[in-house]
Design a protein that fits this description.
The strands form 4 sheets. This protein has a 5-stranded antiparallel β-sheet with strand order 2-1-5-4-3, with helices on both faces. A 5-stranded antiparallel β-sheet has the order 7-6-10-9-8, sandwiched between helices. Strands 12-14-15-17-16 form a 5-stranded mixed β-sheet, with helices on one face. Strand 1 (42-49) and strand 2 form a beta hairpin. 43% of the residues lie in helices and 22% in strands. It starts with a helix and ends in a 7-residue tail after the last strand. It has helices spanning 5-16, 23-38, 67-79, 81-88, 143-182, 204-207, 231-239, 286-322, 330-360, 371-388, 409-426, 457-460, 473-476, 483-493; strands at residues 42-49, 52-59, 92-94, 115-123, 126-135, 186-190, 196-199, 247-254, 259-269, 276-284, 368-369, 392-397, 405-406, 432-439, 443-449, 497-502, 508-515. It contains 14 helices and 17 strands. By secondary structure, it is α+β, with helices and mostly antiparallel strands. The chain is elongated.
Length: 522
């Protein structure tokens, strides 16, 4: 039998479904067109997703509801005609349902059926759907009908798959968008051209937009006129090279909204074409910055304004001593306590100012320093402190041929002496303090080992914090808790780092490293 004009029209209409994106609309139209083409009275379709029945897309011959649908469909797929076609992955015809055991009749089924045809919709080896056509007369369906429906099934499968994929993408995009909206940080995803391909509502005020959709595929640079907060981001885009492992972290400020942001940028790779894009996360740190600014201001006011009353207290204490004729009077002892307290407070103020000066003041690292000379000067300066407690100050120097370092001599020496002073302070009389200095291809190292009581693990992470004093050690010696904080800040300003190794009862090792001015020559 030759194809008719109606058959060609059928194929054309099914082909037109390839551009449809709604799964329900595609399925309904396929069923309608196929039923009309073969003269079927009723059609049932069981759609499958990932090998399982898609219960949201089940069309049955009878009007079933709730659990009835699951029971009937499960029985048909297990023992019936549709199940046989699905397992064998080929279509077939039942000329007379009363003579074919594959046809299952349910007791409450009042729909007369004498012939049936079933066709699988195949995507390579996967069954996308099983469609069954029925008629009340025997021998209604012919081999030509089966061939026609097999051809239609091939076209319809592509249309169904396209609609499913589009629906899945839409669902995933909605889920992603829901997740993005729950993120309080500003999130912007750019393509390789610097155009916005994804963002969230938190970014809209900075972009000056009211809807997310209005930002899609617009260059980020056009928003620089809206808010200067994007200027450092655009500088990164301008100077970066394609590298999927590179990441950036920096701060930026929005004058328009008076907000501080900590920005993290990294590359992402577009999976289909391999294009490189950028993921930008902007975390609002305004409150932290405000607290830091408030702290700096209060610290400045406190330290500077306290100096005058402290000097006044010291002056009046001296006058009281001058007016006290009796050297054995308890007033002398009281005044001495006042003076020592004022001196301790003055020392604390100086420590605070020193720490803040290191944190906030620019350090001009212009001096070329010989590390060995620096270490030997530290040894000379600290020897008397150790001898005052009958401690043994020993040193191990492996610095032959060490390159220069670029550093602020006074600050770095003070940091090293603070480590030694700390060891002297918490090492018992008669103990041993060992200084070690060495270098490798890129770094100069300095460490101080003591024979004190050591520091418990739970306290080690905090010893370099300002004002933190280890319980137990704080009772042994007076102090402000700023010495190690000063060491850390000085070393960090020299692009180095500090470390601590300690075991309770076995003493401690405090160390620092700073980069060499040039690599060691080989």
């Amino acid at each position: 039998m030759q194809p008719t004009f109606a058959d060609l029209e059928l194929l054309a209409e099914v082909s037109s479904l390839l551009n449809h994106t709604e799964v329900d609309a595609v399925l309904s139209r396929v069923i309608e067109l196929c039923a009309r083409a073969v003269g079927a009275r009723r059609v049932s379709m069981f759609l499958h997703t990932d090998g399982e029945v898609d219960w949201n897309h089940v069309f049955t011959v009878r009007n079933l509801e709730g659990s009835e649908i699951i029971q009937v469909v499960t029985k048909v797929l297990d023992d019936g005609f549709a199940g046989w076609v699905k397992r064998n992955q080929r279509g077939d015809i039942i000329t007379d349902t009363t003579q074919d055991p594959r046809w299952i009749t349910f007791p409450d089924d009042m729909t007369p059926v004498r012939s049936a045809m079933c066709v699988p919709f195949m995507d390579e080896t996967d069954v996308v759907a099983v469609v069954t056509f029925v008629h009340e007369d025997p021998n209604h369906f012919t081999p030509y009908h089966l061939r026609l429906m097999t051809i239609v099934a091939n076209l319809a499968t592509i249309a169904i798959r396209n609609a499913q994929l589009f629906s899945r993408q839409i669902q995933q995009r909605r889920q992603l968008q829901t997740i993005l909206q729950s993120i309080r940080d500003v999130l912007i995803v750019l393509n390789q051209q610097g155009e916005i391909v994804l963002t969230n509502e938190a970014a809209l005020p900075l972009l000056g937009k009211e809807s997310i959709e209005s930002t899609f595929y617009t260059p980020l640079r056009q928003y620089l006129s809206v808010d200067e907060v994007f200027e450092p981001i655009l500088d990164v885009l301008k100077n970066s090279q394609p590298n999927n492992s590179q990441a950036w972290s920096f701060e930026t400020y929005s004058r328009r909204h008076k907000l501080d942001f900590q920005v993290t940028m990294s590359h992402w790779i577009e999976p289909m074409r391999g294009d490189v894009g950028y993921v930008i996360v902007m975390h609002n740190v305004t409150e932290l910055k405000d607290l830091a600014r408030f702290k700096d201001e209060m610290l400045r006011v406190a330290t500077h304004d306290l100096r005058s009353p402290l000097a006044l207290i010291t002056g009046y204490a001296d006058m009281i001593l001058m007016d006290t004729a009796d050297e054995n009077s308890p007033v002398v002892e009281y005044v001495d306590i006042i003076r020592r307290s004022v001196e301790r407070m003055g020392a604390l103020i100086e420590d605070l100012l020193r720490v803040e000066r290191v944190r906030s003041s620019p350090i001009e690292l212009q001096a070329r320093i010989d590390p060995e000379s620096l270490v030997r000067q530290v040894i000379v300066n600290m020897r008397l402190s150790a001898e005052a407690k009958q401690q043994h100050l020993v040193y191990e120097l492996r610095l032959e041929g060490v390159p220069f370092i670029m550093a602020d001599t006074v600050l770095l020496r003070q940091a090293m002496e603070n480590l030694v002073s700390n060891a002297v302070k918490y090492t018992p009389n008669g103990g041993t303090i060992t200084l070690r200095a060495w270098y490798d291809d890129a770094r100069f190292y300095f460490s101080v080992q003591d024979t004190g009581i050591g520091i418990a693990p739970e306290h080690q992470a905090r010893v370099f914090e300002s004002f933190y004093r280890v319980p137990g050690l704080a009772q042994m010696e007076k102090g402000s808790g700023l010495g190690l904080s000063l060491v850390k800040n000085v070393v960090l300003r020299h692009q180095g780092d500090v470390w601590l190794e300690s075991k309770l009862g076995n003493g401690s090792v405090f160390g620092l490293w700073v980069p060499l001015a040039q690599p060691k020559s080989h």
